[in-house]
Design goal:
The chain is of the alpha/beta class. Helices cover 30% and strands 13% of the residues. It is built from eight helices and six strands; from the N terminus they run αβαβαβαβααβαβα.
Length: 277
């Protein structure tokens, strides 16, 4: 099945309820990846990444949730229900998250660990909060837009990230250092992706950490991000040797393109970029 066909199958799932399981397991697929979008986004934002994960041989389940309308504990319960419906019988379940989606999954796994838990890849998580939230969330219109969970993603001791314990499960983090948001970058000290500082994306206890030249909003659409995500799901490290797409030629230009592959073929990561110190 080509990447375009897989993308179309995933797109068709958007008509399903927020926590629906989709699509059904691929023939012979042994492992499931649940993709979890970020604040004020929908499952559509994870479609391209999901298609690439399917191309690598995973069954992909997209978890949609009302990120702006419920507090964190209710979002976590939605995730728990979705997992019970979709993934209890899966041999292994991984998570790939974007932004606040990582905080939702982290909250869930802090309270319970499924027996079939695999690995977790977090893309641009506000693991230690965001100075942009600190700056803006006191304004009532912004607070109302962000909602009860999103407005608590700041850097303060009373914010959600401060309450999270170091992870005791396998996590790899990919942070971005390219900004499309000059206002946010003016507020954030040091390298950032326009919404989250590179240093604030670090998850205590994570197995690996990688920085790529990607902006926060579109980090999940980069081919190199998909390749590194597959590497971590396979090996527990970024840049580790991988048998993903064995028998397919790697695309030497794939690390700098954000568009879908032009034709069929399994995802086959090129040589790894340098990891952040």
């Amino acid at each position: 099945m080509t990447l375009l066909v897989r993308f179309s199958v995933l797109a068709a799932t958007l008509a399903l309820p927020l926590s629906a399981c989709s699509p059904p397991p691929l023939p012979g697929a042994a492992e499931t990846v649940m993709v979890v979008h970020g604040l004020a986004r929908t499952s559509a934002s994870m479609l391209l990444l999901g298609a690439r994960l399917e191309e690598a041989g995973y069954r992909v389940v997209s978890f949609g949730y009302p990120s702006r309308h419920e507090p964190m504990d209710q979002l976590v319960e939605r995730l728990r229900t979705a997992l019970a419906e979709c993934c209890l019988d899966a041999p292994r379940v991984h998570f790939v998250t974007h932004s606040m989606g990582g905080i939702v999954v982290w909250n869930y796994l802090q309270g319970s660990t499924p027996p079939n838990l695999g690995r977790v890849v977090m893309l641009a998580p506000p693991a230690r909060g965001s100075e942009v939230i600190d700056e803006l969330a006191d304004a009532a219109p912004v607070r109302d837009f962000l909602g009860p969970a999103g407005s608590r993603l700041g850097t303060g001791q009373d914010d959600l990230p401060a309450a999270l314990a170091p992870v005791d499960f396998e996590v790899g983090v990919i942070a971005g250092e390219r900004s499309l948001n000059p206002f946010g970058s003016e507020i954030i000290p040091g390298p950032d992706d326009g919404k989250v500082a590179v240093e604030r994306a670090r998850v205590p206890g994570a197995a690996d950490f990688l920085v790529l030249p990607a902006p926060h909003t579109f980090i999940m659409n980069r081919r190199d991000v998909a390749e590194e995500t597959v590497r971590f799901l396979r090996s527990g490290r970024f840049g580790a040797p991988s048998d993903v797409g064995a028998g397919s030629a790697a695309d030497p230009d794939s690390s700098v393109r954000d568009e879908p592959a032009p034709g069929p073929g399994a995802l086959n990561p090129p040589p790894a970029p340098s990891r952040a110190p």
